[in-house]
């Protein structure tokens, strides 16, 4: 059963990555085409904002009850480690910050620790098994979600984080 859990967690991570890339990449390609196919359209400051907005979406894929699309399909949820309740939006965001710089390492860590990866240690979260859900339930969760104060904090932290990454890689 442990080996099955490890394999399912890796599949969940890869499926999450695939789904988010399928959501993010087509709009970026469209923007490049609309920008007359010039690379300057994505290199300009506005292009950076657009690019980082899509990365922000990627980092917040678990916002809805601690479950991304792949986690819903495979039956996983991110929970607060101390209280065993659904992780809040801020915890999910912090948990995924390490993906930008250590995604391959996160996958390797998950082979040895299927319930916790590096980001879970920073966010004080873990992944548990839950009932598998149908894909259409995510729409219901999106409709029932309201803007919270910690979402504004997450946006501010994301701005600082992405600005720092941008300076680091330039």
From TrEMBL:
Q: How does this protein lie in the membrane?
A: Multi-pass membrane protein
Transmembrane parts of this sequence:
12-34, 46-64, 149-169
Keywords (A to Z) from UniProt: Membrane, Transmembrane, Transmembrane helix
Where, subcellularly, is it found? Membrane
The UniProt entry, under InterPro entries, shows: RDD (IPR010432)
Q: Specify where it is mainly localized.
A: membrane
Domain RDD: start-end pairs:
8-161
Designated name of the protein: RDD family protein
